[in-house]
Design a protein that fits this description.
By secondary structure, this protein is an alpha/beta fold. The chain has helices spanning 32-46, 52-60, 88-96, 114-128, 153-156, 170-180; strands spanning 7-10, 13-18, 21-26, 70-75, 78-83, 105-109, 133-136, 162-165, 186-190. The chain contains six helices and nine strands, in the order βββααββαβαβαβαβ.
């Protein structure tokens, strides 16, 4: 007997079959990685004796956690999201969650730590280049000492999307962001 599970994700729904039965998982939060994690969770829970149907029903009602692709609100026809992702792999996964949508994705990203930016700036630039427009904030030091040659500009220099570097002055930056937004955009605060 094979232990392999084959699944397909379409329109933010994961379909899979097991023991000749068909199942589907749809979550309150979008994203392929969340659906894959949910599949692993329900299969693991099944090993404890809880049926797939019951665990799928429960996981589909799970509201997710704060700052993980969290829907904040809709304002002036713009959907606003927040995610804590501050590593290139997390950033890429979050941005991939929006890839099937037929809306512009405007991202406001703040790199965390000088050392992390120094290590991963190429990876950040590659991941962030898939958005329609990027606002890049100054690096959040998280208590680290500034590294002279490291700033958000080393990411910006490698971007392959339209971008603007923000000042870190909230009033000025919000004004810049609001001018860029159009109805039906997705606005994602990341980092």
């Amino acid at each position: 007997k094979s232990n392999s599970i084959f699944y397909k994700i379409e329109n933010n729904i994961l379909n899979f079959s097991k023991d000749k039965k068909q199942y589907k998982i749809q979550l309150k939060v979008g994203g392929k990685h969340y659906l894959q994690n949910a599949l692993c969770a329900v299969l693991a829970v099944e090993k404890t004796g809880i049926s797939l149907q019951d665990s799928i029903k429960i996981i589909q009602h799970y509201p997710s956690v704060k700052r993980r692709l969290e829907f904040i609100k809709r304002r002036r026809e713009v959907s606003v999201f927040d995610d804590y992702g501050h590593h290139p792999t997390e950033v890429a996964s979050v941005l991939q969650s929006f890839s099937k949508e037929d809306k512009r994705l405007i991202v406001v990203f703040q790199p965390h730590r000088y050392t992390r930016t120094q290590l991963f700036y190429r990876h950040f630039a590659k991941a962030l280049s898939c958005c329609d427009f990027l606002f890049l904030l100054p690096i959040y030091s998280a208590g680290e000492k500034k590294i002279d040659e490291v700033s958000e500009k080393i990411i910006a220099n490698l971007l392959q999307c339209d971008y603007q570097i923000l000042t870190g002055d909230i009033k000025k930056d919000i004004s810049q962001i609001e001018r860029k937004l159009k109805p039906l955009d997705n606005l994602l605060f990341l980092g």
